[in-house]
């Protein structure tokens, strides 16, 4: 991991004060001291580090991961205007460790109804309202930042946008299309598609089958996003969908897709042997995912928990990677976002990509409107002078659920 991972897992607004709580893996001795910012300014108060033995168990290989908790508070300023950006800073440079690792929160009224808890749970593995808001807005903002940095474009520059795997509009609800734009959402979850059609008036929504083709016409879209779709497809199904995406992409379209990479697999509780196999092969099927069990019969046979390496996606040789390479005929460009900074090609342009915990800095436990719990007493902190050892994989899963792909596969 080239950048120290972090997660905002709690947001509180109370009497003109905003607070966040979460964890941030220490950056190491080379980077020096660290801190956190809100809208580009330091928080009024920061408590760091705080003991987080659960994070120490997950990141057993990282120095001082057990001392990674933080608690920050700040007065709300008139200039904030209901919009908040949170960053993890390198104090030596005064800048974020990685600009695309930011989290975003808003206190502006919702434009559309929120889906019910059971619908939210199928999208990101938890029913928490705050998490749904935080994760959806952060993903939306980060994808547009990628478009600006890599292509000099914004969402408004694309006449036809597709959200592949729209769920119940976690990300799509944040679009603000002009009259000349179309925003389309497709998903295998018929119930969530019906909810979107009834509650998101600007969108066009279609229920699709588990396997391509879709009913969409050739060369339909200028921009396609896919949040947590490739993270749940077997290798064979992935290859079929890559060809379908190439079919419905317009020439020179841009595709932004997320994958589970190194950051996610480190937090998924896999054994060291499984991790080594994944590094060698580049692709690992971690087993069935049951989040859609009540909507799709035998869904776990289709809906998987899978992990990709950057090398697997980037390589252009023979074998399974050929399907990624073959998409180039569409003249589209795919950028994949994962914990290991994947970049892949479904087009003429290959190269840079997205953040380690893009969008998927997802499933963070943000609880809006409740006071932040007090910091864990320092007497509970783990030993600061010893390197954590690999945890017993039979132990209970950590309560932390943020920052790993869409979070469905990890606990």
UniProtKB/TrEMBL annotation:
Q: Name one GO molecular function term.
A: S-adenosylmethionine-dependent methyltransferase activity
Q: Name one Pfam family in it.
A: Methyltransf_11
Region entry Disordered: which residue ranges?
A: 366-411
Q: Where is the Methyltransferase type domain?
A: 162-256
Q: Which UniProt keywords apply?
A: Methyltransferase, Transferase
What SUPFAM superfamilies has UniProt attached to this entry?
S-adenosyl-L-methionine-dependent methyltransferases
| Listed InterPro entries | Methyltransf_11, SAM-dependent_MTases_sf
Gene3D superfamilies, sorted: Vaccinia Virus protein VP39
Q: From start to end residue, where is composition biased (Basic and acidic residues)?
A: 378-393
Q: Name one GO biological process term.
A: methylation
Q: CDD domains of this UniProt entry? A: AdoMet_MTases
Q: What is this protein called?
A: Methyltransferase domain-containing protein
The organism of origin for this protein: Hydrocarboniphaga daqingensis
């Amino acid at each position: 991991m080239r950048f120290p991972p972090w997660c905002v897992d709690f947001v509180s607004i109370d009497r003109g004060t905003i607070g966040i709580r979460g964890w941030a893996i220490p950056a190491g001795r080379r980077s020096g001291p660290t801190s956190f910012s809100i809208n580009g300014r330091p928080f009024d108060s920061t408590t760091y580090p705080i003991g987080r033995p659960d994070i120490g168990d997950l990141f057993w290989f990282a120095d001082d991961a057990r001392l990674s908790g933080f608690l920050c508070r700040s007065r709300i300023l008139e200039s904030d205007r209901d919009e908040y950006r949170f960053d993890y800073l390198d104090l030596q440079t005064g800048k974020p460790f990685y600009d695309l690792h930011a989290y975003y929160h808003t206190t502006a009224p919702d434009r559309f109804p929120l889906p019910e808890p059971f619908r939210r749970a199928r999208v990101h593995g938890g029913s928490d309202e705050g998490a749904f808001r935080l994760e959806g807005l952060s993903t939306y903002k980060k994808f547009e930042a990628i478009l600006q940095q890599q292509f000099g474009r914004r969402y408004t520059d694309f006449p036809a946008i597709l959200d592949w795997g729209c769920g119940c509009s976690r990300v799509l609800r944040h679009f603000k299309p002009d009259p000349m734009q179309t925003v389309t959402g497709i998903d295998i979850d018929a119930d969530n598609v019906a909810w979107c059609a009834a509650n998101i008036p600007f969108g066009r929504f279609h229920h699709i089958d588990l396997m391509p083709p879709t009913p969409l016409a050739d060369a339909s879209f200028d921009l396609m996003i896919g949040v947590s779709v490739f993270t749940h497809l077997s290798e064979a199904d992935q290859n079929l969908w890559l060809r379908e995406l190439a079919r419905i992409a317009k020439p020179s379209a841009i595709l932004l897709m997320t994958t589970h990479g190194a950051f996610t697999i480190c937090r998924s509780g896999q054994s060291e042997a499984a991790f080594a196999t994944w590094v060698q092969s580049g692709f690992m099927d971690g087993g069935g995912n049951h989040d859609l069990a009540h909507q799709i019969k035998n869904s776990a046979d289709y809906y998987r928990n899978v992990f990709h390496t950057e090398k697997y996606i980037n390589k252009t040789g023979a074998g399974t990677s050929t399907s990624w390479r073959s998409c180039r005929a569409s003249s589209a460009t795919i950028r994949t976002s994962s914990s290991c900074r994947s970049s892949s090609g479904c087009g003429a342009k290959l190269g840079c990509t997205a953040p380690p915990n893009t969008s998927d800095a997802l499933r963070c436990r943000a609880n809006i409107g409740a006071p932040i719990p007090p910091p864990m007493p320092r007497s509970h902190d783990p030993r600061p002078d010893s390197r954590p050892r690999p945890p017993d994989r039979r132990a209970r899963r950590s309560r932390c659920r943020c920052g790993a792909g869409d979070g469905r596969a990890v606990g």
